[in-house]
Amino acid sequence: MGVKVSLSKKYRSRGRKGGRDDVFSLDVSFEVGNELVVIFGRSGSGKTTTLRCIAGLETPECGSIIVNGKTYFDSDSGIDLQPQYRRPGYVFQNYALFPHMDVRKNIVYGLKGWDTAKKEDRLFEMLRLLHIEGLEGRYPSQLSGGQKQRVALARALAPSPDILLLDEPFSALDMVVRMRLRERIKTIQKELGIPILFITHSPEEAISLADRVVVLHEGQVHQSGSPREVFYSPVDRDVAELVGVSNIFEDGDVVGNSPEGFVLEGRGMQFVTSSDVSGSDTVSWGVRPENIHLMAYDEGLLSDEGNVFAGNVLDVTDKGSSKLIAVELDGSNVVLFCDVPTRLLDEAMGSRVIVKIAAKDVLVFE
């Protein structure tokens, strides 16, 4: 069954700092099977509008939305089901719990028409599923942020929805609570077999949660694939920037071959990539900061083959579990940002370093 979405919508988005509103065009197509799909992109890319169109809170201008074989919207057929006739579970950024209702009443709110015994069974099933047993008598004001989010999830899941829509639900929670809830969401998806659409602008959240990632940029789907495909084989510069490729260079000339692949030349340097650039004269390329290996300077490590360079450390930023180190390569104006786990950092490393990059980690994109 699953979900098929193909929609177009134009709407006005707020201009910056009081400027005139801009007309924003949303044009997306994707499918969701029995899986957890993350729609990933910057704020303002159309993520929330996409969810609202699926839920029936906004209306596309054209296209279709089909969920488990049921047509929610089809512009050609004139079908546009009202929200109450669709069956999504929707969790908003701000939880949207009813403050005057206790946890019990919040969770069973969508179970109108159920008999009392069945409703009670479903309540305790949701309490167990979300690990919130014992909280049913409390009010939202008496709950922590993580507890509120679990109650919101329980309320959304209680009516057995066809799809679960999650709009950046963990953005206001601290790191440890976010990690626990991510794992719970993944477990729920597997236990219930429900399609889940989860939107976020966090690369970490996208790669840790998703079975598949849909990258949305300026209202368009730029790439769709597994987290590894998207994060380690971005199709263009926009996706590369979104997924954290901080070392990006344009106009790399393809100048030859090497045993490991192809040789790129630019900024006075040559880099070897194992990406297939046959048939290309000039490409854009980049390296993820965590895929750059730093070592204390040793002239014996330098080699004319592969991506091994000498350089000077320009700056070090402590990120806690890792350090972001800016290195300028000798004989060029290339500055690379390297993300090195603190525990792996060579304490003997000074301002002179050796940089090593595997050919497979030199990414090439449009």
Q: Could you tell me the radius of gyration in angstroms?
A: 25 Å
Helix content estimate: 10-25%
Beta strand %: 35-45%
Largest sheet: 6 strands, mixed
Low-confidence parts lasting 5 or more residues at pLDDT below 50?
Answer: none
Description:
With 366 residues, this protein is α+β, with helices and mostly antiparallel strands. It contains 8 helices and 21 strands. The strands form 4 sheets. It has a 6-stranded mixed sheet with strand order 7-8-9-3-10-11, with helices on both faces. It has a 5-stranded antiparallel sheet with strand order 2-1-4-5-6, with helices on one face. The longest helix has 18 residues, at 175-192.
Topology:
Blueprint: E1 3-13, E2 22-32, E3 36-40, H1 47-55, E4 62-67, E5 70-74, E6 79-80, E7 88-91, H2 103-107, H3 116-129, H4 145-157, E8 163-167, H5 175-192, E9 196-200, H6 203-209, E10 212-217, E11 220-225, H7 227-232, H8 237-242, E12 247-258, E13 261-266, E14 269-273, E15 282-287, E16 293-296, E17 307-318, E18 322-329, E19 335-341, E20 352-357, E21 363-365
Parallel strand pairs: 3-9, 3-10, 7-8, 8-9
Antiparallel strand pairs: 1-2, 1-4, 4-5, 5-6, 10-11, 12-13, 12-15, 13-14, 15-21, 16-20, 17-18, 17-20, 18-19
